Amino acid sequence: MLALSSRLALVSAALLAPHVPHACRLRVPPPLLSAGRRAVRRQRYTGRDAAPSPAEPLVAAAKAAAAAAVRPPAPDGPRPTDAAGFVALATTHQQLGQPRKTYSLYEEAVEAGVDSEPVFVAVTRALLKLQRVDLALELHQAHGERSPPDASSAVALMRALCRSKRLDDASELLASLERLAPLPAVLQPTPPPGGAAPVASHEGADHRVEGETARYPLWRAVHSSMRPALALARLRGDEPAAALPLLDEMADVAGAAAPSTATLVELTRACGKAKCMGGVYACLEAMRRAGVEFEENHEALQVLCDALVHDVSFVKGGVSMDTLPAEWLPEAAFVGRSNVGKSSLVNMLLGRKAIAYTSKTPGKTQQYNYFVVNPQRDGGPGHFHLVDMPGLGFARVPAAQRAAWRGFLRRYLVERPQLRLLLHLVDGQVGPVATDEALMKMVAEAQAEVAEVAEAQPAAGGAGEWSYTIVLTKMDKRGGKGAAESERKVRRALEKAGCRADIRVVCTSAKSRLGRDDMWRVMRPVVLPGEADEEE
């Protein structure tokens, strides 16, 4: 009976609870909980006039101590006595938007005799966050009189100057950093025996050089980050002439201090938009020295092609010397036996699918097909003709026509002044055959005749000096040993024909795009006429 009455009392209390004033409700002591959870329960189930818990002062003290531990020092409080204090105070001034007070902390730290390097780094970054590039530059100059600056701070300052388009100040900063961080001893030119000109070792294949230059962070930052950043800003500011020397110097040391592949790709794209063909080739050389694998990086390969080729179109077909275009543009001619893949290689090189006509029927090309590349440049760098010649040695063509083609080709090699490069395509799976050997012999005789005429009559006109390169096609089906064997066969055939020993041999594949970057390196005297061909 007692239990039943207790239950009825509890039910009645529950029903009457909404109608009883909050302060008069029965308060049940909470279970043993943590101090924080008890405080929450007390606010929910007790009135405002309830007595505070004994744990509340302890909780408040703990919260105050935690807030004091993370609170930055007061800007007008006691002055710091160590580097950590100055760094924390720099953060406070930066959060309060006080650039002048932030700047003065560096001089104060120097006068206090504390380590100024971490203070310099913290003040520099605080000023850059406040967008006071002028004060950050002034601070850098003051610190540089005492010691070389931190590499990361120098890079941040250079990028801020480029973003704010203060490119003259950025150039002065770069020059001052080069004086503070000269070329490491491992990269100094070493004089070879015999008194010849010294040669610098900048190649990226030398891992010893890379390891040595890692000990020079400021020098690496200058060449791998700051110089490319300034060159990119110059290109975007429509100053390709000012960017080109920076890109050339970047390429010279790319083996030891290479920018990232993403940076090189962006520079290549910017050079293409600025029509800076020399800059594109500087980026290409930097990628080679940095070890970029173009077969695995399709974006870099496509950006390279887009930078070099903006527009290409068919001009006309020529069947004799009189029917060839009369424009004075440098020419790159593709020649080889039938079904060697000339048209496919031309399409691959230009990054187009159907510029040069491809056919499964050998001998389909029966005239000199002229294509103009970048006609909008009006004779400037990158404006040239590309010539797709008829295939040689096709049996179904009458013998008289084959003889006429050979006579036309010899006249073209000897008399065409616009010719700058002859690309002889050889099937890499088969190697040079009789047709290829006959063409090699014709090339050797034609080059000797051109050189003899040029020496005897320098002002007589006629054909000028042109380069000759062997291009092995369909090399995606050949392994490493197969490629080496194909090149050995070509070298023996060239020697037998009386050709020079320095003729280049390039392995390509129109299917896998192998050798596309090497082909553009070979094309340099055509893209940049008048410039000395870069030595490998």
With strands numbered from the N-terminus, the spatial order across the biggest sheet is 1-3-4-2-5-6-7
Q: How is the quaternary structure best described? A: single chain
Proportion of residues in extended strands: 5-15%
Output mean pLDDT. Answer: 81
Largest sheet: 7 strands, mixed
- The amount of helix comes to 40-55%
Order of helices and strands: HHHHHHHHHHHHHHHEEHEEHEHEHEHH
How many structural domains does the protein architecture include?
3
**What is the H level of CATH, i.e. the homologous superfamily of the largest domain?**
P-loop containing nucleotide triphosphate hydrolases
- The shape, in one word, is elongated
Instruction: Report the CATH architecture of the largest domain.
Output: 3-Layer(aba) Sandwich
At the fold tier of CATH, the topology name of the largest domain is Rossmann fold
Secondary structure category: alpha/beta
Write the layout of secondary structure elements.
Layout: H1 2-16, H2 35-45, H3 56-70, H4 83-95, H5 99-112, H6 116-129, H7 133-144, H8 151-163, H9 167-180, H10 207-213, H11 217-236, H12 240-252, H13 261-273, H14 277-290, H15 298-308, E1 312-318, E2 331-336, H16 342-350, E3 368-373, E4 384-388, H17 399-415, E5 419-427, H18 434-456, E6 467-473, H19 480-497, E7 504-507, H20 516-522, H21 524-527
Parallel strand pairs: 2-4, 2-5, 5-6, 6-7
Antiparallel strand pairs: 1-3, 3-4
Helix pairs in contact: 4-5, 4-6, 5-6, 6-7, 6-8, 7-8, 8-11, 9-11, 11-12, 11-13, 12-14, 13-14, 13-15, 17-18, 18-19
